[in-house]
User: Which sequence fits this backbone?
């Protein structure tokens, strides 16, 4: 991993909080950078470089929850910020969507890093439902922009905390849990590249997997070999903080850490279980490090990209039935290929079904 240059950037308040926690973990061999329009917030960052966006635009007072201000601040600082990205192979941006700086600036920064040749991954959290429609609308609009500007987008749904945490868990404990989940994702992506093993995954593999891959699903499972192997498969299918599944993934990476007595039969069982769940896979990468654990432990990390549609259960999507063009020469009572021309409902339904599978990224106006 020493030859690969990695920068992890936290954008806005939520992103900066994550950088603060990452700095206390095992990420010191990566470049850590906290970016915000609020200079007072940046003063609380420890053990990490900081960068104030848009000093002329915001006077250092923040974006006031306005994504337009966040975007303008990022554009104002683009020349200085781009110098920090020179020579980087992988740039990971973490942010919280729904506010001003993270929502508005992250797409600009991601696009900038991508133009400079880096593989760009964005990990973004969505606001809670109780935070209101405006923040939700900002968040959804940012997603469309991020899909266009970054290579890979991993979304974390804050409402998933409500189903994950104990009902008596404090707000602070819940947010720390979400931060830890986000940090786990960053750690898994970077360690998958960095750990050589019996079946190795290198940075070129990761680039092929994630370049222009859109929405990405990440999950992790760890069991003792005394447990059923099936529990790995079931755990990988469930990530309550990501509100979409990976069944539609065209490209998938399965990285396994194990002890030296990990068998080919066990690898076959795990990989077959995971691949059989995919709807229409095109490329599955397998990595195995069998020197990671001394005990009978198996740990699997799944990174699924290029999602063609998003759903969380096991139900396959119903493909729209083919329909024929109906000429105006047929009366309302007539039909062609079994399709009535009493109205255009059949054609409209077919078009609507197709639209559900097609999402065109649209940036901010």
Assistant:
């Amino acid at each position: 991993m020493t030859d690969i240059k990695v920068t992890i950037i936290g954008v806005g308040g939520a992103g900066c909080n994550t950088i603060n926690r990452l700095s206390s973990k095992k990420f010191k061999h990566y470049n850590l950078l906290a970016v915000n329009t609020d200079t007072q917030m940046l003063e609380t960052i420890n053990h990490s470089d900081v960068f104030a966006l848009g000093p002329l635009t915001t006077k250092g007072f923040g974006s006031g929850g306005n994504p337009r201000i966040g975007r303008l601040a990022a554009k104002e600082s683009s020349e200085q910020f781009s110098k920090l990205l020179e020579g980087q192979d992988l740039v990971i941006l973490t942010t919280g969507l729904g506010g001003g700086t993270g929502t508005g600036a992250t797409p600009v920064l991601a696009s900038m890093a991508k133009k400079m040749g880096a593989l760009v991954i964005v990990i973004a959290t969505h606001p809670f439902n109780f935070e209101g429609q405006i923040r939700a609308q900002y968040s959804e609009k940012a997603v469309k922009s991020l899909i266009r500007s970054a290579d890979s987008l991993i979304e974390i749904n804050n409402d998933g905390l409500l189903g994950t945490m104990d009902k008596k868990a404090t707000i602070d404990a819940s947010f720390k849990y979400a931060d830890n989940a986000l940090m786990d994702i960053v750690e898994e992506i970077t360690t998958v590249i960095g750990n050589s093993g019996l079946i190795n995954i290198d940075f070129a593999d990761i680039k092929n997997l994630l370049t222009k891959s859109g929405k990405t699903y990440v999950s992790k499972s760890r069991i003792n070999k005394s447990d059923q192997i099936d529990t790995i498969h079931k755990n990988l299918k469930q990530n309550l903080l990501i509100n979409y599944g990976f069944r539609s993934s065209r490209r998938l990476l399965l990285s396994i850490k194990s002890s030296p007595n990990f068998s080919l039969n066990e690898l076959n069982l795990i990989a077959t279980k995971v691949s059989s769940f995919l709807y229409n896979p095109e490329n599955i990468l397998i990595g195995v490090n069998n020197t990671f654990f001394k005990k009978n432990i198996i740990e699997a990390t799944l990174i699924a990209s290029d999602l063609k549609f998003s759903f969380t259960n096991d139900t396959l999507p119903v493909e729209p039935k083919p329909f024929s063009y109906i000429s105006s020469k047929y009366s309302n009572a007539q039909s062609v290929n079994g399709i009535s021309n009493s109205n255009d409902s059949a054609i409209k339904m077919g078009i609507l079904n197709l639209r559900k599978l097609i999402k065109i990224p649209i940036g901010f106006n």
The domain at 213-307 is CATH 3.30.1330.20 (60s Ribosomal Protein L30; Chain: A;). The chain has three domains: 6-194, 213-307, 321-365.
